[in-house]
Every structure is written in structure tokens, then in C-alpha cells.
Amino acid sequence: MSIEFSVMKGIMFFLLAFLLLPFLLEANPVRSEKKKMTFGLKGDFGHAGKRVNSNVSCFFISLRNAEGELVYNLEKFNLVKVNDQYISAGIELEVGHYYIEDFIVANHLEEGIYIAPKQGSEFAYLVSSPLPEQMVISGDDPQLKVMEVIPVHLQGADQFGYAYFSFQVAGEEKASADIYSYFPFTYGDLSDYGNNKAILKNHGAEFVAGHDGHRDSGLRLGGDDYLQFSNPVDYNSMKAFTIMGWMRPTKTSSGCIISKVTPNRDFVLQLFNDRLEFHFAHGGTYYRIYSGYVEKNKWTHFAAVWTGEKFAIYLDGVYSYELGNDTPGKAPLWSGGTMEIGRMSGGSYFEGDLDEIAIYATALSQAEVVKLYNKR
Question: Which residues, at least 6 apart from 17, have a Cβ–Cβ distance to it below 8 Å?
């Protein structure tokens, strides 16, 4: 009897334990191991090894786990600069595999300034690991994930592989279907962030601080330096246009900012007799206007506009027409086969610094020019 009782008692205890197991597990769940992951932006990284600027403040990330569950959906995390890197505080995640789906770096206004492109997008080739990128959280500490990103500038969301931008792009008021070319020269980059995707060949120009004081975001031309466009014919369809940028000349008696010439002059924007001159020519006949006086060694914003009928020049957002015929009754012939920044026809070299050269295939109004100038 005692043996049978003991057996029955054991069976009952086993059954009781089996029935209570789910409740015991719920009351005392198995806790997954968690580790901290730090995200960083290296000082020299990403697009052609260029440098992150000092406006970096935070990043937004979308992250899925191995089961496909969304862990973060454009969650914001702050970044701080440590020596030559921007890093986040440690983000606690369970050990396992994850996939980074979105990664946007923003400034203190939470405006997007850098982005990680996605697989299959136009700019995917600029980084070694386009999104979605796998990330493994292991039992090893510490863990740092350095992200590759490129400047947002004026590009559309689809060019990075995003359906749309869920954030405000810094300086997006410059983005326009009419912007043929935009060269911010940021971080030593000669890329065209406009629609034309022009290629510039550098002949001696150096990268220096731009008009906003940021390192390697401006261009210095020393008197025999210039940049040459590979595709001047692509600009021949402009019926109206605006040339805009920043200049800090060390010489104002002469010096060409940008030109499209030979055999005819489609447009020339240059310093002449301490003024800014804007002209085109039919053979030996010139149609031109001049601005007021330009100061040496001072950053000045300029905009030269051709409406299809009239010229206009703005300096620091102010209309500045002093001399010449602003309504010539003619238009450019669009036959110039040489297009350059910093010189014209092998001479008239610009001396000083240039920044944010843009060409719009439309005549910007004074209000639009002032708005862009005020975003300096």
C-alpha cells in the first residue's frame, strides 16, 4: 500500500506541476539578455570621405527585429561630439539580429541634413552598406555602430529610396524643379545637387571655410584656378535663368565668376571695374548691365536674373542695377561650348572665395532672392 501510495503521490505532484507551469512562467518570465548599442558618425566617413558638419544634433531611426516586428519607427536619439566623432548614448536592445530601415541625421531644428540611402536607390552606390542593413547585438560590450550617410541637400526622397520625406529638409526652399545645378561645395564635394547632375573638373581650386564659416564648404580660387563643366550643352534649353551664389573677392577690378562662351557668349557674370557685370553677346555686340560697387574681402550674396526680356542683379537681396541696358530686346543664342567657374576664355580669372553656386532655369523674383539670402 505504501508503494502504491507513493507512486500515486508522485503522479499527482507531476500533474500539479504541469498544470501550474504556465502560471509560474507568466509570473516569472524568462528575461532576454539586453546590451547597449551606441550609434556613431565618424569624423571622415560616407560620401567620398567627407566631413560631418557641426550642425549635427540628433538622428531618427527605424529598426525591426529578426521576427519582423517594428522596434523603433523614426525614433529620435541625440548625438554628442566626442573628439572627432558624433555618438549617441547607449541604446538598450535585446541580444539578437536587427535591420536598420531608416536613418536620418538632423540639426537642432530637427531638419534632415544627412540620410542613409537604401538599396536600389540612385545614391546607394555612395555607401558600402545601403539600407536595410543588418545589425547584430551580441554579448560583447561595448558595441558601436558607425553609420554611413550622405548630405540630403536638394534631392528628392525617391533618389535615396524613401517613399517620401517625413521630415523637413534643411534649406529645402532651394529645392525646385527649375534648379538646373547647385554646387554647395560642402565638405570638399564638387557634386551637382541640382537636376542637371553636371560634372565639374577642378583645375587648382582649394576648399576653405564657406560663407557660413563651416570648414571645407567654400571654394578658393587663387588667380589661375578654375572649374570646367563637362556638359555645357545641357544648359541650352533655358529660356529664362538665375545665377546665384556667394562671393568674397580679394580683387574686384576683374574676375569671372561663371561663363558660358565660344563661339558666342550665352552668359558671363564677372567683376569689372569694382562692379558685378552680367552680359551675353551676339558676335561682337554685347548686351549688359552693371551692379553697384562690390566690396573686397567680404562675403556678398549675388543673384543675376535673365527673365527672357530683362536683366536684373541683386546684391545681398537688394536690387542693384546701376549701368547698362536692362531691356536689350535680344536673347542669348545658346551656342557657347565652354562653361567654367572662375574664368572666361582662358583668362579673366576670379580671385577670392565662392560658395553655393546655383543655376535656376527660371527668373527668380526679388522676394524669392531675398528669402534665399535670408537663409544664410
Answer: none
